[in-house]
Write a structure and sequence with these properties.
This protein is α+β, with helices and mostly antiparallel strands. It has 8 helices and 9 strands. It folds into 3 domains: 75 residues, Nuclear Transport Factor 2, Chain: A; 40 residues, no CATH class; 69 residues, no CATH class. Helices cover 22% and strands 20% of the residues. It comes from Nocardioides phosphati.
């Protein structure tokens, strides 16, 4: 007989007592060396109960054998529904699967790699519906009919959601106001002479850095970003290099040197 070490509210005493039957059926499918003690009996519903056994199989620490038994109303005959191996709370299991398109990060693409965009990508909308700028009604009116009739221009352009996602990503990234380099900058990008303005709905929030000596050269930066390469940055007096001393002229003659 096997003694169970824990029980979770089993109301069916017939099924609870069927632990030996559960073990017998389990041993038909698993090696005896892989099966440990009964560790729990959990009621799954009316006249349905699961017996759990410790798993001793190498590499399956924290897993447990699950044997579900049941009986008909008014009958004492117990049948086995299923036998499976399940992970426990402290079992080592593989991480949840994440599709490749959700795992890819900037910099992962190599020359020749392709990353197709799905037809229903919410970041994109047909250009003929919105124009190049979804917030510009004039662009919408001008582009819609031309693109529809002649097929000119881009097939798709950014949706409002796509613009918002990009803006938030840029604002929260290395070119945003919370970046460590921006926290110690002498001034912000909006007042820098190296800032290139952009057009469209993000023109009041972002620009492109054009300082070849700056870390963000050629990158989108928020107006609240900043770095030490600001066009108006000035060194404080204590940060300035120490000026060289005046030249010293050696007037010592050979005769004077010999007399020393």
């Amino acid at each position: 007989m096997t003694t169970q070490t824990s029980t979770t509210a089993p109301s069916d005493t017939v099924l609870t007592a069927a632990v030996d039957l559960a073990r017998e059926v389990l041993l038909e499918q698993a090696d005896r060396a892989d099966v440990g003690d009964a560790i729990a009996a959990v009621a799954e519903g009316d006249h349905v109960l699961t017996h759990y056994f410790e798993c001793l199989r190498a590499g399956y620490r924290g897993w447990r054998w699950s044997v579900t038994v049941a009986r008909a109303e008014g009958s004492d005959k117990v049948t086995v529904d299923e036998v499976v191996l399940l992970p426990g709370d402290d079992a080592i299991i593989a991480p949840e699967w994440v599709p490749y398109k959700d795992r890819i990060r900037p910099g992962d693409l190599s020359p020749g790699d392709l990353l197709p965009v799905e037809d229903d990508d919410p970041r994109l909308v047909p250009t003929y519906s919105f124009g190049d700028d979804p917030l510009d009604p004039d662009a919408t009116a001008q582009v819609r009919q031309v693109a529809k009739d002649l097929g000119l221009g881009r097939v798709r352009t950014l949706s409002r959601e796509g613009i918002d996602l990009a803006a938030q990503r840029w604002y929260d990234g290395d070119g945003g106001p919370e970046a460590p380099i921006a926290q110690s900058a002498p001034a912000k990008c909006y007042s820098c002479g190296f800032l290139l303005r952009i057009a469209g709905s993000l023109a009041e929030t972002f620009g492109v850095c054009a300082n070849g000596n700056a870390n963000d050269d050629g990158r989108v930066v928020a107006f609240g970003h900043g770095c030490g390469a600001h066009s108006e940055a000035q060194l404080s007096k204590k940060q300035q290099p120490i000026p060289p001393t005046d030249h010293a002229h050696d007037t010592l003659t050979t005769d004077e040197l010999d007399s020393l």
